[in-house]
Amino acid sequence: MGNILxxxxxxxYSDKENHTLTITGWAVAREQKICNFSLYGSGKEISFPExxxxxxxxxxxxxKETKGIxxxxxxxxxxxxxxxxxxxxxxxxxxxxxxxxxxxxxIWEASAQEIKKFCTESLIEYHIDEEQITQGNILTxxxxxxxxxxxxxxxVQNSDGKVLECTITRQRRPDVEEVKGIPEAEKRNxxxxxxxxLENIHSQNICICFRGRDIQKIYKIDVKKLKRENTGFYQxxxxxxxxxxxxxxxxxxxxxxxxxxxxxxxxxxxDGEQEYEDWLKxxxxxxxxxxxxxxxIFSYMPLVSVVIVLSDTDVKSxxxxxxxxxxxxxxxxxxxxxxxxxxxxxxxxxxxxxxxxIRLSYKKITEDKGASExxxxxxKLAMGDYILFSDQKTVPSPDALFWMxxxxxxxxADMIYTDEDEVSTDGKHHYDPKFKPDxxxxxxxxxxxxxxxxxxxxxxxxxxxxxxxxxDGAQNFDMILRCCEQAKKIVHIPRVLxxxxxxxxxxxxxxxxAWEAGRRALEDHYNRTQLPAVAEPADKAGWYRTHLAIxxxxxxxIIIPSKDHINDLDLCVSSIEEKTTxxxxxxxxxxxxxxxxxxxxxxxxxxxRYPNVRILTWKxxxxxxxxxxxxxxxxxGEYLLFLNxxxxxxxxxWLEEMLQFCQLKGVGMVGAKLYYPDDTIQxxxxxxxxxxxxxxxxxxLPGDAEGYMGRLRCVQEMSAVTAACMxxxxxxxxxxxxxxxxxxxxxxxxxLCMKVRDKGEKILFTPYAELYHYESKxxxxxxxxxxxxxxxxxxxxxRRKWERELLKGDPYYNPNLTLNxxxxxxxxxxxxxx
Length: 834
Known about the structure:
The protein is α+β, with helices and mostly antiparallel strands. It has 26 helices and 38 strands.
């Protein structure tokens, strides 16, 4: 094994920089000897090239791990060889030699002819970023081209050399300018977007031509092949090709041939295009998987007691429920049935059909004492370490108990709940899936999203107490709240593991009674947790709204960065001053490089009109993070309210609505509900991972929409909220170091939220603090090439910082929902490696 380790990464020729050839790479010597570079022409040393050495942490880390080299310094090198064409005329060949001690390595060599050819071809460089055929038979090609000698000429021709009609748009590419080191004076439109209407073009090949003074390069597009690749049939055939043979074989072995064909059939579908029933077939447990589950042995296999009260029972439906438990892949269960039906029909049916099933415990109750007492009677039959609450119209999937026990053994779950859907009474049609978030206490307080199918460890249930008759109608909600107070580990299984049969609507007076019982149960929960709160019915049946008492009268510092646009700012400030019912606040406007004289006149007017308004001046370049950090240092409030200057207050009590939650211990930040001027949703919380990094969920829905599972109408924990209107405890903001100033414009608010969550503080969204945000829906966030480059850098920065969290997924957004759209539509089945 040689002593010298090296690699040449790149060769670049610059005609304008003294005809210089630049060679970059890395080189180290195992024995820590100094590496020297020499240039040879026709076998003789001719010069010592210009050399620079620098750190290459990527190389150093890898070599330390794989080669065991303890110390690596300045592994990287850049060598510049000027007048390379002159040297190629004088010598038949050139060699770059690396020497360490007595050992030598030739790391680059080329003949004179190869050098001339390389330099000539380097005069024009191009790259195709995208080529596709869109609707209307339009061919679109995007990319960039650099001509070192002069401006380039881009045109399109067919295979016969005939120039074709097309539309060519040129644009700036700062990313290419930066990489190529193009000076400011020589910057021009390097990017291109070419569109060709293929309607009347019958040539199989189309050529994109890049022509300069001394050279022309051609990129050939096989139109027929491209059209074929755009079809769903081609995508399916690609999946079945020889290159995917091993993957397909592994998939079939794991999932079976039937599921494989379903996967191929649906491969061309996009998120949200698949019907739910078809989606369910792709995701429910299949025969091979169920067989593996039946043979699985857990380190802990507790008895699960399923508690069900039978009332107004249809024995046919009940039979399908019991049969579903008998088909469970986890067999250590007990079914506890308490029968409050009139007559003996249900009991006779059970004794006749299930007389040999020893896991079924049955008790007939002659007097119906109400929902809570009936459940307490059923609990007396339960012998299990875990109690699963369900009902006579909820059918578990065959792997429901398996996944619950998996959560118990792997995650030490005290309490477990799952996703669910509804099923027709004949069991043939599934619909209305409810894909729930991971445990979200504030969301639960608004409405029992956990549902009727949930499990709890016995000792946690005993600590929580029995069902209470005074909460009949909402006895399940009351019990869930009490168990959540006691459970240390609440696990959500993001799988549809139960199917609720169609239910006829109950009598309206009973629904009203249940709604009121739930409200009282919620207030009782607040009393137990020592939160001074009042609950009231919300504007949706079975939902609640909480009013928390605000402790003391803390100051809130409202921070508004602003540059010119005084009409926007005036609307913002005047709406605050005229509508806000909270009295103890200050407004800090951070002046950021305004250029209009009227702006500074307006500032003076503001200060005279509103004594609680202060103007700070930021004199450096625009950096949203730095500007707000600067303002926080001057803020006097116990709470900070970051606000855009293009908003208008709708809710008079907007500060109270946010403060009542932000004041709570363990809550670090609260965001508001924002509307576009046309009353559609601009912000109702941010999902991390949506759109690749983070995005506003359910954006652009009508303002009065409920949103998926009502999420537009309830207070809930979120992973992030927007700083267009964001309240945060000053102590929490300072504890996490404020905004990251590396993120000058994009994702700085999301990054702040991630840091706050990383400290164990919750982030809430409230729909009851409402504002207009006069940001245009059609406005591109990054509308210049320079902004696009900066945006790309900030995306990479955010991904680098929060890579692990992005991979884990947003806990408040179900993984069965798409990350490609903001509409909470279904996410299609994916295969690892595709």
